[in-house]
Amino acid sequence: MEPVLLECRNVAKKFGGVQALSGVTFAIRRGEIYGLIGPNGAGKTTLFNVLSGIYARAEGRFFLEGRDLTGLAPDEVAACGIARTFQNIRLFANLSALENVMIGRHVRTRAGVIGAIVRGARTRAEEAAIERRAIELLDYVGIRARANDAAGSLAYGDQRRLEIARALATEPRLLALDEPAAGMNAAETAALRRLLERIRADGITILLIEHDMRLVMAVCDRVLVLDYGVPIAEGAPAEVRRDARVIEAYLGGPIAGDVAAAGAVAP
Amino acid sequence: MDIFLQQLINGLTLGSIYAMVALGYTMVYGIIQLINFAHGEVVMIGAMIALSVIAALAKSGLHPVLVVAIGTACAVPVCMAVGYVMERVAYRPLRGAPRLAPLITAIGISIVLQHLALMIWSRNNLAFPQIIRTETYPIGGATITNVQIAIVLIALAMMAGLALIVYRTRLGTAMRATAQNLQVAGLMGIDINRIIAATFVIGAALAAVAGVMVGTYYGIAHYTMGSLLGLKAFSAAVLGGIGNLPGAALGGVLLGVVEALGAGYIGDITNLCHFAGVSEALERRCSEDPHLVLFGSNYQDVFAFLVLIAVLVLRPSGLLGERVGDRA
Amino acid sequence: MNTGSARPMRHSAAIWGGTVLLAVALIALPFALTAVGTAWVRITNLAILFVLLSLGLNIVVGFAGLLDLGYIAFYAVGAYAYALLASPHFGVHLPFWIAVPIGAAIAAVFGILLGAPTLKLRGDYLAIVTLGFGEIVRIILNNLSQPINITNGPQGITLIDPIRLGGIDFAKTEAFLGLAFSGPVKYYYLLLAVMLAVIFIGVRLQNSRIGRAWEAIREDEIAARSMGINTARIKLLAFAMGATFGGIAGGMFSAIQGFISPESFVLVESIMVLSMVVLGGMGNVWGVVLGAVLLSFVPELLRYTVEPVQRTLFGRMLIEPEVIRMLLFGLALVLIMIFRPAGIWPSAVRKRELAHP
Known about the structure:
The complex is a heterotrimer of chains A (267), B (328) and C (357). Chain A is an alpha/beta fold. Helices cover 38% and strands 23% of the residues of chain A. In chain B, strands 1-4 form a two-stranded antiparallel sheet. A two-stranded antiparallel sheet of chain B has the order 2-3. Chain B has a single domain (3-314), classed as ABC transporter involved in vitamin B12 uptake, BtuC (Orthogonal Bundle), CATH 1.10.3470. Helix content of chain B is 70%, strand content 4%. By secondary structure, chain B is mainly alpha-helical. In chain B, strand 2 (136-139) and strand 3 (142-145) form a beta hairpin. Chain C has a single domain, classed as ABC transporter involved in vitamin B12 uptake, BtuC (Orthogonal Bundle). In chain C, helix 1 (9-36) packs across helix 2 (38-63), helix 2 crosses helix 10 and helix 2 packs across helix 11 (285-314). The longest helix of chain C has 30 residues, at 285-314. Classes of the chains: A alpha/beta (267), B mainly alpha (328), C mainly alpha (357). The interface between B and C is large, with 52 and 48 residues.
């Protein structure tokens, strides 16, 4: 069995009096595609914000390859190897697609002010490498043709792909995707599925929030189900879909039936 | 003389004026999240108009209080018109633009208003006609003047009037709804443009009265008097929690008091001769003249800025503002 | 940003031709101006100082998107640093090439002092805090003559050393190759060199890893942080770089004028520099240069035209040129924001950004 990549111990987060997350404990193994599902408001994005350092003050601890990342700032988390996308797409909308990905390379490159001004051989080589890698990544997610278009002008599905490319540019160990299939049609979703599998094949572990149950069932090795901020089930998709508590959480009552139908509940 | 009480009285007077101006900032900010940078200039124009009218009527034989009232009555509609035009010309076209755009036009408007005033009223310090004879009353070791009492009372009355408008009329309800959510208020059939214009106009009316007060209190008017006053009033609004009406009133009064007390005491506090024991040279120097003041009362204007910076940095939501969560 | 290499040949020939023409024009300019009047060389020198300031402010406002309304404070710090290090006031007379860098470094420290507590402030709040900072610096300069006389208060500092470089004394007229190089002409060439260096630095920074990081925080700070950009450090860098340019310009101003007082560093000056950046096109180095040149010269042209026109029409001055100049500044800010929010010569990115929805 592969070693653990990300480990969360008792992560909890409160907003005022509202307990948005509590007792979230799980471990993702290297090379997995690990799903995070649950009804709207279950705390999935909150967990992402904790893991990416946006919510600095959360309880509990989390570790990436044994290294404690609790309380680190978002840029430090990114430097340690967790990269994310956003549910409500946060691209640098007025910059070109290429520049967006090039900015993703920031954390793995070094040139400072002096380098920028002098632009010596090393800086030039670095700049060339940044651009080359950014183009590769655009190609990788399938939007190379749009490299020079403003990110905000891309089609919705392409924007989601661009966010993935930008995240990949930071050379993450763990890629955290917040509803990458939202707003995609069936063909786009199928392409996304192939992309996710390819990313995994290239050695990057994926943490996936997704409402599209068909995609989750098809691509995830294991899933964690959150409800009202509390984990209620974890396991292979096939097991979880038969879990009574999961069915109840999704359908709001103890109604028997195939939770594949839960896919229809999602927007 | 009781310095503390005296500075407290001066501070309360000053603070009442700040509060009236701060209300203008906070109302506009509450509704369209814009710092109306030119609001201070409206105060200046109010003072200038009143100055001209009062000077013209000074020898008319009318009762001085009536003359000041007429001056104010002329200043208010002019300022309301300025407020309206300002919103119409410089801010409305930019609704929905990035935040910095209306801030920059506001600076532009501010410059234009200042220099129009310069053209009309010259670049000199103008003596504001002191036609109301100042009466001084002793109060517990300090003194208070009839002008100070009038300023505080009028400010209270104006604020009460504003509260009535905002909390007891249809217009006020519409204003509060718009402040909550501009789009939704629009969908509910509220004429957003009218409400925003009304907000500017009401704020300008308060500013006009504040302008007359400043002129009467300091006895001087100048075409640049609005910018510093405006900044201080904005600081007051931020101190109270921007967008919050009682907060602006509270912030104004607090800032006035802090400034007055600061000016009254800073010279004493930073007098190095308190520490004369530290070095012999200092001791010798202080035996000749016991005042070796590091910061004198000429640093008074720095207080407002320090308060502003401290509040913005430490508690940007202000004293009465709601804390904004760290949502991503 | 990635267009430089792929430009067609005839295009680049045109650019080279243009560059050579421009260079010749810039070199010949002071002599042409001297023919019109020595005052114009001085005006040009001041214009170049404003170009320097605008380029510095452009780093903060244009690149990083941080609206700084107290920028003139850094100019003041640079100017006073030079004045105190090279004048009879303290009896210190450091050479220009030491005093100006020290001033620039102090200005950079002030930039960081201003930046550090304001890192988390939203755009418009930041604008107000920076404005307050600028005023505080001015008030302190105005009052720091007591109890120890450091700044000499409102009277300012006089008899500041002119620049001496090698054997060249910039205050004296010298003949060289049969041409008379007056003080202002020599300063012109020095300023021109500094300006070209600063333009070069600006362009290089914009098209670099750092420049992209600035763009990123301007566009979306949370996304930028999540991509591993240390936004605190990168913002402070913008403040420090901008302040450094301001400090350099201040030091040169001090040396050229020979006299400075707090009156040269009022809020209006900050706003003037901001106007230049906004008018020219935030974020685009060339646009900013254009904006600074326009707003420096147009008012001067007005001064020389409005006065005689008014005198012949009305027999006296109705509106002083200074007032007209300020009215134009104000109107320019309003009209540009409404009709051409990205400026006369915008950067491609800012154009998209400021296009109204």
